[in-house]
Amino acid sequence: MQFLSISHRRPDFSGTPSAEMRAEEVEKARALYAAGLIRQLWHREDTAGACILWEAESREQVWTILQTLPFTRAGVVDVTVIPLSPWAGFGPAEPVGQARATRT
Asked: Whole-prediction pTM value?
């Protein structure tokens, strides 16, 4: 299952993460990518933070992994985790007249 995490710098965090913390964050992200848990990772253009596309068994697994990242562990960022499901528009068309449940 895939999940999207969106992080942003906490407004009450006034410092700058140390070079050591940033390096540890990068290395941890590389290891998670190599393990197939991180599928894609982006820096945010609108604020300090990141968006990560995860491949995981559950939302709880994503949260557990996030707690191993230095910025999350140190309270530098707030994170939202969103479960994703495939877009139905790429699947086969349903016969005319058959009702389809809508997603919100």
From this structure: 0.82
